[in-house]
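Bump. Still looking for NADH-ubiquinone oxidoreductase chain 6 C-alpha cells.
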Amino acid sequence: MIMMMLMLMINNLILFSSHPLMFTLMIIIQTLLVSLMLGNISYSYWFSYILLLVFLGGMLVIFMYITSLASNEKFKFTFKLPKFMMIMLSMTIPTFIYLMYFNNMKYFKYDSMYLMNMFNSTENPINLINLFNMPNMNTTIISMIYLLITLIIIVYITNMNKGPLRKLY
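Sorry for the wait, here they are.
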C-alpha cells in the first residue's frame, strides 16, 4: 500500500516538473517502484528485473538525448510546499479510500495465503512464460530492435566530432 501511495505521488510530481532531467528522474523512480511491486506479486523477481533493465535501457537512451538538448538549463522549483502538499493529499487520499473500501482491497493484500490462492486459482492464472513464447515473441523482438536502432541513431547524432544537438555559446 505504501508503494501504491508513492507511485501516485510520483505521478502527481511528474505533472509539476518543468525540467526534462527532473522528469526523467521521476520516470526512473516510477519504473523502480513498478518493478518492485510486480516482484511482490509474482513468483520470483526475474520478470520484474528484466522489465527494469529494459526500461532503464530505454531511459538511458532518452536521458542521453535530453541532456544533449537541454544541457545548460537550471532547476527552478515553481511550486510552494503547503499548496503542493494540499493538492497531493487531496488527490491521493480519495483514490485510496476508493481502492480500499469500494474495491474490497483486492490489490493490497500481500500475505502469503492470498498470493498462493491467486496463483493457484483457475479463474485468473498469472503465467509469465507466455510473454516470451511464440505469439508475443515477435513484439519483444521488435521492441529490442527498435531500442537498438534508436540507440545507434542517437549515438550517431551526438557524435563527439559533430558536437551536441544544441550549440553551446
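The chain has six helices and no strands.

Edit: fixed formatting.
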